Each structure stands twice: as C-alpha cells, then as structure tokens.
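3.2 Worked example (two chains)
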Amino acid sequence: MTVAAAVPSVKVADVDYNVAEIERLMKDADKAGVEVVVFPELSVTGYSCQDLFFQQSLLEGAERGLTELMKATADLDVIAIVGVPFTIDAAIFNGAAVIQHGALLGMVVKTYLPNYGEFYEKRWFSSAADLNDTALTYAGHYVTVGTQPQCFLTADGVAFGIEICEDLWSPVSPGRISALAGNEVVFNLSADNELIGKYGYLRSLVAQQSVMSLCGYVYCGCGFGESSQDVVFGGKALVYECGEQVAEGSRFSFAPQLTVACIDIDRIRGERRRNTTFTQAKRGIASLRIACDEPLHPVRDTDLSETRIIHPHPFMPAGMTVEEVCNEVINIQAAGLAKRLVHTNCRKVVVGVSGGLDSTLALLVCVYTFDRLGYDRRDILGITMPGFGTSDRTYDNAVTLMQAMGITMREISIAAAVTQHFSDIGHDIDDHDVTYENAQARERTQILMDVANREGGMVIGTGDLSELALGWATYNGDHMSMYGINASVPKTMIPHIVNHFADLFETKGEKAGNGKALSGTIRHTLRDIIDTPISPELVPADPQGNITQKTEDLVGPYELHDFFLYYMLRYGYRPQKIFILARAAFRGRYTDEVIKKWLTTFVRRFFAQQFKRSCLPDGPKVGSVSLSPRGDWRMPTDASATLWLDELKSL
C-alpha cells in the first residue's frame, strides 16, 4: 500500500490559503500513485488558532474549505485524511475527515485532549468520549461519528484507521484499539511541538505502537507556518511497519513536503496470522466498516526502490551492527551446546573439519563453548577426512586451523574405504554420479559417529539453514549428527561470524603451548576459508588442484536463496511478491531472468527435500526462521509445489 504524510505550508486561520496548499499536495500524491495521504492535525484552519476556534466564521470557513477539497478530489483516486474542526450540538470537536472522489467518507474525532504544558485543548474541544454514536451532516454529506472504531476499506481490501496526536501518547490508545478492530494501517494527524530530545522519544513511541499493534503507522505533524508565539512545530513525518522505520521526512523544512512510502500489507497479515496473542486480544472489539471507492484510473505500479529500501540480506536484523549480530549468534550456539554437554555429562565432541565455512564455524563454536565451560580443548576431536575431491587449499586450512586451536586432530582418508564400498556394490569409480558423491558423505558420517562412540563423545553437525532449505545434504550423511549447531544459521551470515571470530582471537592474543603468538595464523587461515569457493568437494579437482564443483554454480547464489527463504517462511509470501522484492533488493546485480530461474529452483527443491528436514537432529534456533520439524516448520513430505511453480511460470 503506497501512503504519504503531507506537511503543507500553513497560515493560521487562513482557510483559503491552507486549502490551496492541501489541494496541491493531494494532486502531487495522486500523481505519485499514493493510495492514502494524511495531513496534519487541524490542517484546514491551522492548529494554533487558540480562541479563534470559538469564532463562527472560522468554523463555517473550515466547512466550506473541506467542501472545496472534496471537489478537488473528484477526479483523483487518492484518499485524503484532513484535519478539521466541526461542531455537534454546539460542542466543538477536533476531527479528521476522510475524503475521496468528491465525497466525505467518514469523520473520526480526537479522544484524548491535552491540558498541560503548552496545550489546553479542553478549553476549545470536546472529546470523542463525550459522543454517543451519532449521525452528522457536514459539508453536504451524511456521515456517522461515534465511539466505535472505524475501519476504512480501500478497493484492494486494506483496512485503515485514524487517531489524532495525543491519542498516541495515551495509555489506552485509540489507534491500538483500531488495529485490534481490524485496521492494518493507522494514520495519525498530529501537532506535536519540538523540544530537545522529544523527537527520539516520539520515534520510539511510533515504533512501539506499530510493533505492538502489528500494523503500519503513518505519523504527520504540523510544520512551518503554525504560530511560533510560544512553541515551534517542525513538520514531522514518519512511516513505520511492525516496529521498523520505512520512511522519514525532513524536520524543520521551510517548504512543504510529501513523504511517500510503501507499507507491506502482506507482512502485517503474515505477522498477525502467526501471532495468536494478537488474535486473542481482538475478542469483543467491533468496528464500523466504511468502503472507499474503486479507482477511476488505471492503477499505477509503484517502483519499490523509490519508496523503501529492500535489504538484500534480511537475516541481518535492522538496528544492530554486524558485531552485535555475530555476538548474539555465537552466544546462542554456545549456550545450546553447553546445555547439551552438561545434560549428557559429555566432555568430548567430534567435529568433521573440511576447511570449509560450515565446519569451521562448528569448530569455532565448540572451542568457544569449551573455553567458557572450562573444558580442555584437547577433548575436541577434529577429524579431517580427505577424499577424491579434496583440494590442497581446504586440506591445508583444516589442518592449520585445528593445530592453531590446540584441539586433538586426526586425519582419516576415506579413499580406500569408499573404493572398497564401490567394489562391494558394483559401482564404477569413474562414474561420478550421485552414488559416487553420496557414498563419500555417508562414509565420513560413519567415521564421525563410530569415533564418537569409541571416545564417548558427541558428533557436532555442521550443516546450515540454507543447505537444509535446499536439501543440499546427503540423507543420513552430513544430514545427520548428534547436535546440529549450525542448523538455523543461514549461509550468508556465516562469513560474518567466522570473520568476527578472527577478530576475537586477535584480541585475545591466542598463543600456542610454547608461548608463540598464533592470532596472526588463525586470522589469516579464517579469512582464506571465507574466500574459498563453497563446495562439497565430492568430485576430483582439476589438474592444477583447483575446486571444480562449486555449489553456487549448481544451485544458485546463496544470497538469493537466503532472501527467498526468509520471505517465504517468515511472512508466507507468494512467489510473485518475493520476485518483486528480490528485483528491488538486487537491482543491477541480477536480471529478472536470473532471479526467476533461481527462485524456481528454490521452490522446487524446497518442496522436494522436506523429507530430509522431517528427521533433523536437535539444534539451537538463533533467528526468526528455523526449519526444525519440532516447532517452527511442519510440512508434509509429499506436498505439491504445483501452485507455486505455476505462478512462477506466469511471471
């Protein structure tokens, strides 16, 4: 839904001037494809009229002004929310008028009237709490004004509601009740003045309102032109969505401004579907539903890249530094592993170390956990198992890392055992098919499991979330372990965490038993591992010893798959929506054809490989997306992907 907060120039009590400014911004919003635009509190008259609100001339002028604004919307599709004073039975109310296509759709009244500091609204206005449900003829239109929350429904079925300034600051906010009544976006017409430090508090308040109400929130405050007799109005414009800022206007602008943003309604609905607490809180809350008109003109597509930032790596939480994210992940992994070790009274772990990213992270977490528990690092048994496709680079990095970490290291080649196995089952060793590859993965897992039994230890799994989503693991091979430490860590996050470990070891000044500094060796090795192409190394290297089997050449870029995974599981988005978001997030990096190709691959593999996820070992959840079959993702192994794939074909 494309929304806008419009801050016009104002002249106090000059209705004709104010109407002209509002009309101009309404037309600008309509040209920009905005569906709903909100103006500040009492924008038709100006907020700071004080006792002029008692003047009949001003009140009648406001009504005529709103009539002119309605006429101006006759050929516009934009729905406008305008602040206006009006009277019922000789009482004056601070209201918001919703207008579209030349009509007044509804009126909402301010509930909480400030009567402190610089604001004494109770002097002029009555509260919505003083109303009974009543009908009103205003500006030539018959509307209902009352205490029941009002839900305005756009032609696309999006429900939006309204609260006015102080309503947001109250302990029982009408906006929150409005959201519980069904509104997915709440608009706030405000006249909040400027004070040192107040803006930061307001932003946190709007963020909290949007996340507690699981809604979009559009805040629009009075700006330049309001009276500066005692206070200053900076023209605040904020758009939030489920706690995250989508757009922000420029405060203290001397010129009118229009802050346009897109609010993701599917995300809001997805959050509400998942959050049963929100559903329970809705009990007993009714609303008055008011339908808006269908557009008169063809709907214009909005370019997402112009209205909001779509982050290409959504698993990295907004508002946190990379260092903070890495620390959180490491400590969650370590806490999970520590509990498992203490509970089972196990003081030894076995890790297959290949020299790749995933096994490196698993090893580093084991070392970190053992150090925190006060366990001996020598009880970490790292096993490197070179095979037919192992390159010198990954082998050397695995050995160097294990030596530098001070763990117990073993090397067990799988070549002879797998060759014998091929002979036993009658497989041609020169046929590099799936049997050739999976036999190696299963032999490695067998070695790890049997060594763990012999040593009284626990096999620590290395597979990550992205591989589980794609099914990029050998069933009962690297798919299996006794504790999957990386099971909910996406591939795109792992290089950041490994690099963070490199910095940690450098800070600690890691030393060998002879006192020789190792931090430089560890840092160099870890960063070379990060730079190594991702590969299972199950087919032979080229004559120069270089890796020939590159995972991303076969299944696609992990940054795309992680993007697809996040939006499909976190919010339940359909393929078309994910495609649109990916196109905006990766503009200039991937063509539409490439995005569609790998999104199709993702959907096909995600459905086909569910059987591997139905029997995953235990592992700690670190983020908002997990594929654990015990809680986060329960899916039939024989579900059909036809619906999703057919939609992709139509793109």
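3.2.1 Second chain
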Amino acid sequence: MPVRKPEGLTVLQKAAVLLYFVLLLLPLGGFVQREGDWGGALGSVRRLKLAGNTFLLASMAALGCMAVGLAAAAWIHNGPLRCRRIRWFFLLLAPVPYYVYALTWMYLVRLLGRIDRSLMRSLASGLAPCIFVNILSFLPLATGVILIAMEYHDRRAEEMGSIYAGGNRVFFDIVLPAVFPAVLAAGALVFVLSATDFSVPSLFQYQTHTLEIFSEYSRTGDLGQTGILALPVIFPVLGLLVLAGRGLGTIPVQKSPPEGSGLELSGSLRMAGRFAVSVCILQIGVPAVLFALQTGAPAELWESFRLCREELLISVGIAALSAGTAVLLAGPAAVWLEGKKWYWFLPALFPIAMPSSLIGMGLLKTVNGSVLHGISQTLYFPALGCAIKYMPFALLLFTARHRRIHREELEAGQVYMPSGWQYFCKILIPVYRPAIVGAAGVVFLLTLGEEGIPLILMPPGYETLAVKVYNYLHYGASELVSGFCLITVLFTAGMFTLVIRQGRIREVFEEKS
C-alpha cells in the first residue's frame, strides 16, 4: 500500500529545515561585508605561533580525555556499576561552565601556595591550568561517548573471546578495536570544543589564536579581517568534525544490553580504570566541596543568591528560548538529513567549528541596520546566538533517535491518521519525545553556561550569570564568586538529574520497544 504523506506537515518540515540552515549561516553575512587582507591576517609568524598554541592546548585536552575516558568507561562497563542507572553519574556536571573548573584550579593553586609560593606563581597561569580545566570540563563528554560505544558493541564477540583468553586480552583484541572509532570521535569533539573557546585561555593568560580573534575585532572592528584570521582554526576543526561524525556513525543501531558480568579486568588495566573513575568522582566532588567551604555559612550562600537572582532569571529565560528554538528546528532537519551524504552535515554542524565570539560578532554585524534590527534590543537576540551555536548538538541527538525508530510505525500512522496535525501529535511527538526532552535539556544547560555570545549580543542593562562570574574572575576569586559558582553547580546538577532521572538521554540511543 502506498504511503500517504500529510502534505501540511511536509510543508512545515521543509520550512523548518530551510530556517535551520538560514539561521546557521546567518552569522556569516557579517563576514562578507569587507574583503579583509589575506596576507596580513595569515602571514604573521606570531599568529602562526598562536595557532600552534591553540592546537597544542586542544591536543593535550583531547588526549587526556581520551585516555581517562576510555579507562573510566572500561571499568564502568565491566565493573559493579555495569547494569545500574547510576553508571551515568559522571554526567552530573557535564554542562557546567568552564569558569567553575577555572575557579577550582585557582583555589587549588592558592592551597599549594601556602606550601611553596614559587610553585603557586608557576601554576597560576599558562598552559597547565588550561589543560586541567579543559580535561575536567570535557571528560564527561568523552566518557559518555565511549561508554555508549561499549554498550552497543556486540557482546557475543566478547563472550566468545572470553572462552579462550583473559579479560585484558579480550579487551585489547576485540573491544578496543571495535570502539576505537568512537574513542577518536570523542577526542575530536574535545579538540573542537577546546580549540574554539577563548574564555579559559583569557583567564590564565595563555595566548591562543582564538583569543587573538576576539582581540583583533575589539581593536579594528573589521569583521572581514577577523573572519580571515579565524580560517586556520576553522578548517582543521571542520575536518575533525567529519572524523567525529564518522566515528559516531560506527556505533551500531542495535544495543546489546549490559546483562550479567563483564570482562574480568586485571593488573594495570584495572588500576587505570579505578584511577579514571576516581578522577570522574573528583570532577564532581572537588568543585562542590571547595565552593561550599569558600562560601561559608548558609547566610553567605543566600546573600550570593540574592545578588545574582536577577542574572539567574535572565539566564534561565535566555536558555529556555534557545532550547525551544533548537528543538523546533533541529528535529525536522535531522529527519531531512537522513540518508544524505556526509558533506551535507558540514553546514549543519558548522557552528560547532566556530568560536562563540565569531558567532556573536557575525550575528551582530548581520542584524545591525537590517530589517531584523529590532531583535537586537531584546533578550531573544543572545538566545538566538546560543541556539545557532548549540543547535548542532540537538541535531545529533535527533539523528541518533531517528536511526532507532521503527519505520513501520511511522508509515502506519501516515496511512491511518486522518490529518497531518493528528499524525504529528499522536505519532511523532511520543516517538521523538526522548530526543525532544534530551535535546532541550542539553541546549538549555549549555546556553546557561555560555559567556562569549551573551557578552557580545546582550542588550544594554542586562547580564547573564555566566558573564557576571566571568567578569568577577578577572578581579580575583572571592567568597561571593564562590557562592555564584555553587549556585550554578547546584542548579545545573539538579536540572541534569531531572533529565537523567527521566531516562531521556538514555532512551535517545535505545530502540523503541
């Protein structure tokens, strides 16, 4: 029987897909208004060195996350947490902003300074603190991607190998080759996110190419020149995005439930796993404990909340607008991209490769003086910038869910539902609900911690909590900043716990039963 497609729904889907790509490419309009000087932007030896600093930091963060994430995922997948939902504990602070771990490092260095002040001076700035902050920031992402790959790996190969060899041999000969593309994908994602961030290097006075981009625009106001300056970062990052996409695409559609006992890991592999899981625990516990100690009495925490209440409400409002925009557009785009060649995903994921500052600058330049100028005076302007930056993450979640939906159910709904609206409400919404909730939660929390885009696009008289803390950190850590960060940690952990408790992130990757 031929499938009848609801025409009204098809028109809406096409409009949403078109709007998705228009919004993603909207910031680029600001970069074509002037040609810029190619030689001046790319020929400087100093700038090539800054690009080297950027890639060094991103590489060290990626390698660290790959090593720790692989060891932690192996222990979780084969240890006592194997069949328990608590095995996803490391995701609790996954969307926490960078400045939380930056302040954690500052406090740790101050404690070390009581022992040796020369040690404090050497660790207070430079490459080391940037690597520390980026590894702790992106470790949950790397561990989660690798653990998902292990849980979707064919267990029959493990069971067969366990008959003839020990757990360590099976892990290195069977499991690791199968999940290695996902390990590389996790490392590529960490590299991309590290290379496109300027906030951590600016806090620790480590000169990078991404920070130079922000400084160049502040100095000249020439966005064309700034865009050319960004190309040495954007092109390699786009290549790594393709690598990450291919690696994530190797994760099988069908899941092998983690039932029974896993591999019997022993020796150095078991020790490495325990150490890595300890790092994941410290990644959650150390910031919370340090901020609680620095904040002091509950009255101090309440005072911090009173002082940042308005900024927190503004942040929540912007995050909600950003999440709503991303979900409405990313879902139809993910369905439309199904079966397309890999190069179609480059424009769909392009904003991930752009530093947040570039997205903010490009969007500001494009909108100013245009018919959309009125939007720049509203809180939706920074929300739109954040939606453009983080819509690709929503797209990836919708794509993962779309791969695991029984097509027969959708086809039956298209045939028997009397209207496109009923098909949308009674079939599509329930089937895609895990992706809707998961994508909304992820974009909401990532927007909540974003400081680069609101710093540029926020209308006068308003400020987000992330920007407030970021500005305070440049004047030194204090009990007040600790209170702000503790509020951020508690709020983020509470929101993400709700998403995990509902099982939505997990259900995105599972077949509908």
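3.3 Remarks
Residues 298-337 form the longest helix (40 residues).
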